[in-house]
Amino acid sequence: MAETAAPRGAARIVDIPRYWAQHAPEAPALFEDDRPVSFAVLARRLEAAAHALRDAGVGPGDRVMIVGENCAALVESLFGASAIGAWPVVVNARLAPREVDAVRTHCAPRLVLFTTRASAEAGAHAGRWNATDAGAPGLEGLRVAPGPEDAAREADADEVAALLYTSGTTDAPKGVMISHRGLLHFARVSAESRQLGPADRAYAVLPISHIFGLATMLLATLYAGASLYLRARFDPGDVLHALAEREITMLQGVPTMFGRILAHVRETGAHVAAPRLRYVYTGGAPLDPQLKRDVEALFRQPLHHGYGLTEYAGSLFITRADAPRADTSSGFIVDGAELRAVDAEGRDVPRGQVGELWIRGPGLMLGYYRAPELTAEAFKPGAWYATGDLGRLEADGALFLAGRSKDLVIHSGFNVYPVEVEAVINSHPAVRLSAVVGRATSDGNEDVIAFVEAKHGAQLDLAALREYLREQLAPYKRPAEIRVIDALPTTASGKLLKQPLRALLDTRS
Asked: How far, CA to CA in Å, does 504 sit from each of 62, 128, 481, 508?
């Protein structure tokens, strides 16, 4: 494997590009619009950004909110904030005005930056806040607005590398304080598990506002001295073009992203050529068996999988690059992490049984920002963090996800795990994607409700689908109702959103 241990003396995430600027200055760090940005240029720009932020009154413990989409300016300003001890708060510009405004109110940034050249939506938010052109070296291509009047500097804030807001797939978004130690630790173990080296180039469309994009994509890739092919928006045709023409070796994304690539190929007959592709990975949700089979057939590569969350600075479990699995396991625990599967009383369940996943280790968050009560609720005795995720550990230590504890449907006294029902529904030839939720009944029971998105051009026969499910699911797992929906709602990072679906449960199809 190529050398990935060199930046191990790093104390802050900004030390990663600084290291490679000294040891491989001409090597490419980023590609934007097919133009390379070397590590030397990236280091020079981030230092200029740091200087401009200082001149604007930003200091250690201040929050710098960056509203945008993936681009070099976002990366440079993120590292620039890190260089002066400020907390970058990266927010996806495709969020609604209400959502962006809520983050601004909660984190009270000293300054707000907008990547308007890369994102029309960032421009719209900048217009709402009367942002002006930064006009300073190091902040070229950005517009800037002051934070709220109550912006206050956090004392003793050296440990915090970034403040990321959770996607809100189940609850209201929360600000997660992620440490430099956690991100640097994960960057190392991720680079090593993927056998990353300077010759690698990752297709970088996962939003850096999400832990998957920040930790797995940005930091782990640069930690290894590899490069990122930055893309602001996901487009299946662009993915295939880059794989064929831009020497992409690493393709990483959430399951819905791969589902849309498959749909694009089916609908257009597009040719797939990926001469340098050597590693394909999905995370952010349980892995559907049919999706795994289809992706592996398309790219002629194993589809690797992992399990992580914002509160742990990346993945805790990853399948090994040199030992791909034929099943849908999330792989094995990474160096330094610990995990338990427990019952409702916090007692360990036997191997092979489903329990709630509790975690701890160097990547664990420092807490929820300005929410000590939520932090206290999430942590259990022994510094264990209760994830709310369900899974089982098999005898060999491999982890299999079973969904979210809040997604669990209890029907007639039986536990129904939506991920299992979704996997069966998704295997039907006319189904592109499904989402299963529970609906409370008047007698205290819960019905299984399935929302289904058909493949493009397919006619979905509900009677035939029900017969298909009858053959593969126990009676208590079968949906009481199946609703066909044009497109299932997802977050900006591509994760399924079930809250809007639950809101539809009061309406009859």
From this structure: 40, 31, 13, 8
